[in-house]
Amino acid sequence: MSKQPIGKLDHIGIAVKSIAEARKFWEGTLGATFMYDYERPEAGFRFAEFDLNGTIIELLEPMNEESFMHKFIVEHGEGFHHVTFDVPDTRERIAELKASGVRVLGEKEHSPASYEAFISPRSSNGVLIQIGSGYPTLSGDPEWEKIVPGLRIGKK
Amino acid sequence: MSKQPIGKLDHIGIAVKSIAEARKFWEGTLGATFMYDYERPEAGFRFAEFDLNGTIIELLEPMNEESFMHKFIVEHGEGFHHVTFDVPDTRERIAELKASGVRVLGEKEHSPASYEAFISPRSSNGVLIQIGSGYPTLSGDPEWEKIVPGLRIGKK
User: Fold this and answer.
1) With contact defined as beta carbons under 8 Å apart, do B148 and B141 qualify?
2) Which of A48, B32, B89, B125 is least surrounded by CB atoms within 10 angstroms?
């Protein structure tokens, strides 16, 4: 009797100093394909998504020294930052996680169809796990270009 | 004109102090399904593979204090350790990687059909990348039980 899996892998997030530099390796050496990029100046970071043979690699870059992403890189160096699962019934699963004693951080509603949160590394063997629904990475929905200012699906 | 992707995601490796403890979260909370476990006493670690809705999570545990896995956890704590891509033509791709200046470590032949190596985090934005072919995680080939002593596919 196995429990229903929480969701499917959406992407692997990697903290880098410079997306422009890092993409030389992920695109040029490993053969990933650029999907889109996006800036969140209010949170101090930008990111770009690349499809590596069906696995989405997200490169995250700090936009300033106040950014949590800058602090992460100062403390840990470049590297793995988080893994994200697409969880259609996010709100219900978050309630279940909390009920079972899992620490859940950073709950946020992006749109009525898109809700997210993070499982604290303290509850998940040091791995920051983002769970959420309606991510553009997964849906590839061009509607996101209307919903999210600055999002450019499949364009450099 | 895009480059051929190097391979498909095989698994995500996570360093933990205790597989017995960690699986409570990955199985019990996230709903992953146990696939198999395996010990490599000569290298000082054991690991167990879990299928989380199509993504394989590998939990790695040190078997003694001399293990590189023990040193990793002392230095970094539990958490993400490596990501592995299944690369059918591993030897050729390793030669290409080296020719393009990428640092490649730990080349090893497990069997004529199974060859692996690691891309140094120095070349890949801090992310340890294992590349190889013929992994039992991917093939689920029962032949592995004959080839690899101690491997128990799908059994607890």
Assistant:
1) no
2) B89
Find where tokens 């020294």 sit: A65
Asked if B124's CB is within 8 angstroms of A9's CB, the reply is: no
Q: How close A4 gets to chain B, by Cα (Å)?
A: 5
Residue B41: CB atoms within 10 A of its CB come to 11
User: Hey, are the CB atoms on A22 and B123 less than 8 Å from each other?
Assistant: no
How far is A78 from chain B, CA to nearest CA, in Å?
Answer: 5
* pLDDT tens digits, one per residue of B9-23: 999 999 999 999 999
Q: A35, A48, A13, A2: which is closest to A131 by C-alpha?
A: A13
CB atoms within 10 A of CB A113: 13
Listed residue (B124, B140, B79, B76) closest to A22, CA to CA: B124
Query: Is B75 strand, coil or helix?
Result: helix
Question: Residue B151: beta bridge partners?
Answer: none
Residues of A in contact with B124 (CB under 8 A): 25
How far apart CA B149 and CA B126 sit, in angstroms, is 33
Q: How does pLDDT run across B35-67, given as a tens digit for each residue?
A: 888 888 888 999 999 999 999 999 999 999 999
For A118-137, the pLDDT digits (tens) are 999 999 999 999 999 876 65
- B78 in contact with chain A, both atoms CB, cutoff 8 A: yes
Search chain B and give the residue with CA nearest A56: B9
pTM: 0.89
